[in-house]
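Hi all, a correction to my earlier message: I attached the wrong file for Vacuolar protein 8. Here's the right sequence:
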Amino acid sequence: KKYTSFFFLNLANNNRTGLYEPLLQESEREAITGLLQYLENRNHTNFFDGQPLRALATLAFSDNVDLQRSAALAFAEITEKDVRQVGPDTLNPILFLLQSHDVEVQRASSAALGNLAVNTENKLLIVQLGGLDQLIRQMASLNVEVQCNAVGCITNLATHDENKSRIANSEALKLLIDLAKSKDQRVQRNATGALLNMTHTQENRQQLVNAGAIPILISLLSSHDPDVQYYCTTALSNIAVDATNRHKLSQSDSRLCQYLIQLMDTKSLKVQCQAALALRNLASDERYQLEIVQSKGLPPLLRLLKSSFLPLILSSVACIRNISIHPSNESPIIDEGFVNPLIELLSYDDNEEIQCHAISTLRNLAASSERNKRAIVEAGAVERIKHLIQQVPISVKTEMTAAIAVLALSDDLKPRLLSMGVLDVLIPMTMNSNAEVQGNAAAAIGNLSSKIKDYTSFIKYWQQPEGGILKFLINFTSEKSDVAFQHIGVWTIEQFLEEPNVELVTKITQSNEIMTSISRIANKKTGPDFADTNDIHVLAKRVWNILQAFKVSHPIEEHRRSAGQKQR
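and the right structure:
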């Protein structure tokens, strides 16, 4: 609440009329006189130090309630315009005023304390000096203005991590939950804001849940106040981060998903955003993944996904990513029309997280169905990945290579993917500095090589780009390579041997590096102490035997001298 200079003028008028005279001590008269002089030059006066502060403190500690009112109102107006770090000399008079039985003093002093509680250092000092106990007493006041200011101050104090546990372990927590049901919108707004500030740590979230906050927060989702809706939606979103709390949320109100889905169509953009984020956190559980789709949550999510407001895009794409994890949701999401907008978001280079969520969702949608894989390829996802993969951040590269690896599992799509030139980007990715990108790209190449009849693309890319398939196989079968990577390299060679192409297999056998590596792995010592390498040893032995048999059946002819060569 803003306090005007009217109160200072009132102080001056009372002083001129002599209203205070019979009741004032000498020190109080001097304080009033000095304070009036300071007020005349208020824009250049520091009221938090020296004589101005001592004058205010004298009035605050007075037994005269009129002087206390003047001091409280003065502190309220000063802190409305000037918030800075202060010490005990400033806070103690205000905290003393909070103990007054006069409602006007309580109201103004709690407002002043709330103003000062905006400053980070002040938040901690207020609690250390006993301010929390004083505020708890004010929260229980029958005066709505006092309640509102006290709860507002608690809201500010609760943004400091060191204060949160103290507030949660005090009577303030129960009072906040009770005041969230207040009929006064301002009190309700401050109380729900304070509850939100208490949801940023797992311990505090659990205390809130145990204190019975969930039903109140859910009931207030239908509030007509956008701020209350925002605070409650965000608080529930934070509470839903914890698996045990998600179970309690489902037990508390079976219509929670429906409420949140409705809020994605509200006028407030920040409420829409938080509703989608709350659904995202709920969708960490399989039960909610299905329920959101069944409750018709896809259309509003698609609308948010297509918006131009970054927070809405981010919240909706994060939500659809979690929903897409469930195999039963893959086709409904594709049929709703998400594929093309998701592909467009791959180019959203202003936000790496959006790109990651978009490509990860496409990968999830392609996981279980040939139909869905085909729909994603036909929508142009592979061309977009090819165009972007060299320039996107590592996290996006990881997801893009993983997506191609999933698409490459489709026997029907393999020839199409190869004809699109995916090896142009996959081969360089096997030499990326990031191991996960390397592994995903190699797995994609391995998947593409399996169960195909036409090896033309692999022959074409044998040495290009960047050393081609040859360098990939040399690197991945090298002794310096991780065992998992060696396994991918040997397994890929085995795929080439299933439907042997003479030209391709000849190229493999002509590589001393590949043949030496296969021989080394095949003859590596195995046994109980080498359990991790037993599988690759068996695989390499099988590949080695096939390659040796091929060399016997396809001897390399000596190059004959051409007829035009001179002979000795």
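Sorry for the mix-up. Confidence is low (pLDDT under 50) at residues 1-7, 557-568.
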